[in-house]
């Protein structure tokens, strides 16, 4: 919202500069987002006397003048104005001055032009005698300014022009403050409202505009009837009438006001309504009274969608439940939003009806939104205007329209006021102010601050527990509770003036322990990053088809995909069921940028619909989400080095990384089982279990999903249900120390011939089971499938370590070894290699 | 005797500056050096042998000096191949693992969390799919508040289920399950139905803070946030509290920090980094806590915004592109 500094100063005559006021308002709760200085600086413009005028030898319309600027020699200046004459006192822009000169084609835009010594048609010219428009004082370009002065403001030769203008009281500069008004400040949407804050914050009195409103009734009430059929939507409707008016251009002062805040002047009737809207915040609408059928205004709510043409010639379909203003025959305006084309004020209008109403904020908000019309009027009605300001604004508008347009105000007015509101009272406890803010503000200060913004304040209660009975001004509908008043007090008192507590903040009585969730996630991130993986953050939203495809790969069902009702685009219509699609995009992106070794991980939420079917406990009914952890590998596992060879990733890199991670977070009882039939999109894979709970899977992705079938293009991935993993790992976080066994361990190797299909994992399980507690470690250290093993056979070798809290004998260990070999023979058809 | 000394010289180990000095003193020292001693004793030898003895001792001396020079040379040329191992030690080392990295948003979140954990805040989390009641109603958003529009919020079910627009619903979830005093921070992902551009993305991350207890004041809020800003942006960081508005706090404030920028006429500008305020009594009503007994403060900030400031990142989309050339810098 634009606020003119000069306009503001009419009500709050602050001495601070625009920048200073901007800062004061910002720190008082009206954030000023920018300050734009406007108008000419008048630097280098001085007053001179025209001492000689002679015709230009080479141009009919130009004159060569000599102007006394107070220097030793008069300045020679070529002038094109018809009214230049000897003896005149004139403003002269001297070389070096910069003027904001209007564009001849479009006088609304101005560009800076530096004045220089020059020659015009062969004659020297050392400056410029200025017209009003060249100095930004008006749009008049017909003649140069001739300075006649006034008592106390006599122009002098050589006097800076700015000094003369100031003596005359002419304002030639302005600044526009761009204020971002928060929703709780309906009062601050006008110059008067901002001025009230400025005055209160700088501790000067506010000057209120004079606005004597006539008594309701009189001739105006005879001329028009107002019928409010929806009092809940329109609690008050005031009308005044101006008769025999000539619609004109507005006077310069009014045009200046409107232009300053970026509005284009139209005609004086419309300009006056705009002016008052920005002046006091009351939106007004002017109807051509002769277009109002039956001299009757009816306020009603539409019952069904209704076509209507607004005064900007746009056709709308007005939804049901919208406030409409109708005359005796038809709708003439969308109440509080925009007037209609059929009743707008034109050049030919003679009689004007001024509407000044109070419309219910939520009705206006709905209408403006449904129609996509954000007008200056709807902006204010939406927030809530002063319910007592209608008559004053209507009376001022009528007086101004009549004065500027040569008409007469019809005596009296109509004030249809079916729902008068009474002032609100709020009791504020002094002790509560102090205890909420943590500072003692003297009661006198509190009273002064509140009175400064229009509150009536009375003390109540005893000296022990004083209270303030506050009468809320009508322009503050947002203030309903004690805490709202406290906020007003503290913003005026100044947040900066609240001292911090002397003692440091008290220590927390809450749990200081890191939650298992946080602790394990931090541990996992650190481990993965320090073993070569890069953390990524990907979008949670993706195409619905992609989500369906990956839902199945992630072990869910494609019909469980969560969709948003209002996606930005079809590219982001569903929520991710798995972190995999995001990571695949990252892999593709980096591959396209020449990266060959890709190791990524991500932590993030994944989502699915439950629709109350799968018995899953959900936080929000019908939707399940959990944190997921994804690891992806693709491309070169290692580059060729001076004693290493290049190698592409394979499934065992993903498996090893997961094993390492799970061991690091002490996940109990981890088991990985090959998936008999991998889901579409995967070539093969393993499910990861802790005990009997499946916590994730490791997959080799099929070439079409990986993006190629070369070994370096295949993507290997592991995704864990991190929420579940944390739940299972949490009991193992705090384990008692187990004394280190100080007795020597015994190492034995064992080599076996087994069928080529016999899984090594199962053999290891058999060994562990048969080895019992004495078997501390079992590691596969050799695998051979060559001809020496025999057809259809392979040779597998394990390194075993036995130990206990005592010295083991060879006999014990041999016994165990025999048991292990026996079990391997029996369960895997293994043959001990000699 | 000279031959024995030569043998000794050859077998001495010179592997440090100390050893070199001891070697020099032992053989070449002016007072008691063995070679010096031999040179001194030349006149004692028979005249016809003196010439040959002198030449022999000088050879030994030269050899001793060579050994010292060789050590000095090795000392000043560490890249030179070790003379004894025969291995080219200038070959590149083997990394235990290739370099990995942690995302800058995680770094920034960790830094924020570290500061508040130091102040006694615990970490709480909540779902990204939320009910409208937790996300808006309980947080005192009026029923026709613009944020409830489809234009700003992603809905899953009309008027009931949505993607949370801020981490503040976790305030409600926490206060409903944990009796005060409560002191938590809530990091998490939030969603806004906004056009994607260099300055806004359809999702981002926030850290919410909440402290509810008896006697919590606005002054306490100012203190904790000043300490936070100084921890994150340096002890000389300039900041200001500016009155603002949020439905779920009152009084409300925004915190700006002064960001130096020599290209601007004022050599910097105020940048908003977080919103905060005292918990609104209506929020306490929604979770059935007595606002006369309990007071509290809440604050919230965007992690992306702070990360962009800290690292000088200009386009928010960079975080979600995950270009390795970007990631490897963190």
Explain what the structure shows.
The complex is a heterodimer of chains A (834) and B (330). Chain A is an alpha+beta fold. Chain A has six domains: 56 residues, Phenylalanyl-tRNA Synthetase, Chain B, domain 1 (2-Layer Sandwich); 124 residues, OB fold (Dihydrolipoamide Acetyltransferase, E2P) (Beta Barrel); 199 residues, Phenylalanyl-tRNA Synthetase, Chain B, domain 3 (3-Layer(bba) Sandwich), CATH 3.50.40; 70 residues, Phenylalanyl-tRNA Synthetase, Chain B, domain 1 (2-Layer Sandwich); 217 residues, BirA Bifunctional Protein, domain 2, CATH 3.30.930.10; 87 residues, Ferrodoxin-fold anticodon-binding domain (Alpha-Beta Plaits, 2-Layer Sandwich). In chain A, 27% of the residues lie in helices and 28% in strands. In chain A, a hairpin with an 8-residue loop joins strand 32 and strand 33. In chain A, helix 8 runs antiparallel to helix 9 and helix 12 packs across helix 13. Chain B has 330 residues and is α+β, with helices and mostly antiparallel strands. Chain B folds into two domains: 75 residues; 224 residues, BirA Bifunctional Protein, domain 2. Chain B has twelve helices and ten strands. In chain B, the strands form two sheets. A seven-stranded mixed beta sheet of chain B has the order 1-5-6-10-9-8-7, sandwiched between helices. In chain B, strands 2-4-3 form a three-stranded antiparallel beta sheet. In chain B, helix 1 packs parallel to helix 4 and helix 2 runs antiparallel to helix 4. Chain B is rod-shaped, with a radius of gyration of 37 Å. Chain B starts with a helix and ends with a helix. The relative contact order of chain B is 0.10. The mean pLDDT of chain B is 89.
């Amino acid at each position: 919202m634009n606020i003119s500094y000069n306009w503001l100063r009419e009500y709050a005559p602050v001495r601070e500069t625009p920048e200073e006021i901007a800062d004061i308002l910002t720190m008082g709760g009206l954030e000023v987002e920018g300050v734009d200085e406007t108008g000419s600086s008048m630097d280098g413009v001085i007053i001179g006397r025209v001492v000689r005028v002679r015709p230009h030898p080479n141009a009919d319309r130009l004159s060569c003048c000599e102007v006394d600027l107070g220097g030793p020699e008069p300045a020679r200046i070529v002038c094109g104005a018809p009214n230049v004459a000897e003896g005149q006192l004139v403003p002269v822009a001297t070389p070096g001055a910069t003027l904001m000169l209007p564009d001849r084609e479009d006088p609304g835009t101005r560009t800076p032009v530096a004045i220089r010594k020059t020659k015009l048609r062969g004659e020297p010219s050392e400056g410029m005698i200025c017209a009003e428009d060249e100095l930004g004082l008006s749009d008049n370009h017909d003649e140069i300014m001739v300075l006649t002065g006034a008592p106390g403001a006599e122009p002098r030769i050589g006097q800076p022009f700015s000094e003369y203008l100031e003596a005359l009281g002419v304002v030639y500069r302005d600044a526009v403050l761009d204020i971002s008004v928060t929703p709780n400040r309906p009062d601050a949407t006008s110059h008067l409202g901002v001025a009230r804050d400025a005055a209160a914050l700088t501790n000067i009195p506010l000057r209120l505009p004079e606005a004597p409103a006539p008594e309701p009734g009189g001739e105006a009430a005879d001329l028009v009837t107002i019928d409010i059929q929806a009092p809940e939507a329109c609690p008050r409707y005031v009308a005044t009438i101006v008769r025999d008016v000539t619609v004109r251009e507005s006077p310069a002062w009014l045009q200046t006001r409107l232009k300053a805040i970026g509005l284009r002047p139209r005609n004086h009737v419309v300009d006056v309504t705009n002016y008052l809207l920005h002046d006091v915040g009351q939106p007004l609408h002017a109807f051509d009274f002769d277009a109002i059928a039956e001299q009757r205004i009816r306020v009603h709510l539409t019952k069904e969608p209704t076509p209507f043409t607004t005064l900007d010639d746009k056709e709308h379909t007005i939804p049901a439940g919208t406030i409409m203003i109708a005359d005796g025959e038809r709708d003439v305006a969308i109440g509080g939003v925009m007037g209609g084309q059929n009743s707008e004020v034109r050049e030919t209008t003679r009689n004007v009806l001024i509407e000044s109403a109070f419309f219910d904020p939520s009705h206006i908000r709905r209408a403006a939104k449904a129609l996509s019309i954000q007008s200056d009027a709807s902006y204010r009605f939406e927030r809530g205007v002063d319910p007592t300001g209608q008559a004053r604004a209507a009376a001022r508008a009528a007086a101004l329209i009549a004065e500027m347009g040569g008409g007469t105000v019809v005596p009296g007015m109509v004030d249809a006021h079916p729902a008068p509101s009474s002032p609100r009272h709020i009791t504020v406890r002094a002790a509560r102010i102090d205890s909420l803010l943590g500072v003692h503000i003297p009661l006198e200060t509190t009273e002064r601050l509140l009175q400064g913004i229009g509150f009536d304040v009375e003390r109540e209660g005893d000296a022990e527990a004083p209270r303030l009975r506050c009468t809320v001004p009508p322009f503050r509908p947002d203030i309903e509770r004690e805490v709202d008043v406290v906020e007003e007090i503290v913003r005026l008192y100044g947040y900066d003036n609240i001292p911090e507590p002397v003692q440091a903040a008290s220590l927390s009585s809450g749990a200081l322990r890191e939650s298992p969730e946080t602790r394990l996630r931090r541990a996992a991130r650190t481990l993965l990053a320090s073993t070569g993986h890069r953390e990524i953050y990907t979008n949670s939203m993706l195409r619905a088809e992609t989500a369906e495809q990956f839902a199945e790969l992630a072990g869910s069902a494609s019909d469980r995909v969560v969709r948003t009702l209002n996606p930005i685009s079809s590219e982001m219509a569903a929520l991710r069921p798995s972190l995999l699609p995001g990571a695949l995009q990252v892999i593709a992106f980096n591959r396209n940028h020449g990266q060959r070794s890709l190791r990524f991980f991500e932590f993030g939420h994944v989502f699915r619909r439950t629709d109350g079917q799968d018995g899953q406990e959900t936080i929000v009914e019908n939707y399940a989400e959990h944190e997921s952890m994804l690891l992806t590998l693709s491309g070169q596992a290692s580059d060729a080095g001076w004693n290493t060879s290049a190698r592409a990733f394979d499934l065992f890199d993903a498996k090893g990384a997961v094993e390492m991670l799970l061991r690091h977070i002490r996940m109990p009882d981890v088991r990985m089982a090959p998936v008999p039939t991998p889901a579409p999109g995967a070539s093969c894979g393993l499910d990861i279990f802790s005990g009997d709970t499946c916590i994730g899977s490791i997959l080799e992705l099929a070439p079409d999903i990986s993006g190629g079938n070369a070994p370096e293009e295949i993507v290997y991935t592991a995704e864990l249900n991190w929420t579940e993993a944390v739940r299972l790992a949490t009991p193992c976080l705090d384990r008692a120390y187990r004394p280190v066994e100080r007795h020597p361990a015994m190492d034995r190797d064992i080599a076996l011939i087994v069928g080529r299909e016999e899984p090594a994992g199962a053999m290891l399980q058999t060994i562990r089971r048969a080895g019992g507690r004495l078997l501390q470690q079992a590691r596969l250290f050799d695998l051979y499938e060559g001809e020496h093993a025999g057809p259809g056979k392979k040779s597998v070798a394990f390194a075993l370590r036995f130990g206990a809290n005592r010295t083991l004998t060879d006999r014990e260990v041999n016994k165990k070894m025999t048991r292990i070999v026996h079990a391997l023979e029996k369960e895997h058809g293994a043959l001990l290699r000699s | 005797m000279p031959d024995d000394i030569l043998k000794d010289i050859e077998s001495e180990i010179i592997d440090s500056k100390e050893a070199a000095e001891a070697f020099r003193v032992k053989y070449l020292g002016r007072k008691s050096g063995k070679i010096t001693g031999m040179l001194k004793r030349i006149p004692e030898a028979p005249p016809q042998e003196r010439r040959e003895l002198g030449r022999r001792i000088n050879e030994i001396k030269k050899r001793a000096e060579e050994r010292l020079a060789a050590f000095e040379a090795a000392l000043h040329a560490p890249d030179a191949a070790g003379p004894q191992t025969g291995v080219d030690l200038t070959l590149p080392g083997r990394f235990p693992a290739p370099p990995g990295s942690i995302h800058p948003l995680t770094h920034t979140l960790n830094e924020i969390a570290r500061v508040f954990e130091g102040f006694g805040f615990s970490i709480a989390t909540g779902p990204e799919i939320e009910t409208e009641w937790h996300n808006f109603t309980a947080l005192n958003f009026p029923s026709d508040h613009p944020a409830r529009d489809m234009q700003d919020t992603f809905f899953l079910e009309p008027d009931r289920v949505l993607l949370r627009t801020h981490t503040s619903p976790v305030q409600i979830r926490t206060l409903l399950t944990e009796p005060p005093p409560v002191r938590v921070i809530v990091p998490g992902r939030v969603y806004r139905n906004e056009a994607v551009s260099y300055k806004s993305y359809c999702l981002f991350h926030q850290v919410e803070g909440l402290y509810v207890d008896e006697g919590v004041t606005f002054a306490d809020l100012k203190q904790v946030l000043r300490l936070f800003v100084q921890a994150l942006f340096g002890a000389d960081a300039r900041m200001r509290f500016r009155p603002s508005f949020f439905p779920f706090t009152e009084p409300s404030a925004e915190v700006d920090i002064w960001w130096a920028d020599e290209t601007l006429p004022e050599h910097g500008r105020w940048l908003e980094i977080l919103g905060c305020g005292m918990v609104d009594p209506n929020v306490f009503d929604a979770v059935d806590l007595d606002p006369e007994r309990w007071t509290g403060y809440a604050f919230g900030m965007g992690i992306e915004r702070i990360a962009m400031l800290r690292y000088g990142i200009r386009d928010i989309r960079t975080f979600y592109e995950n270009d390795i050339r970007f990631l490897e810098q963190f």
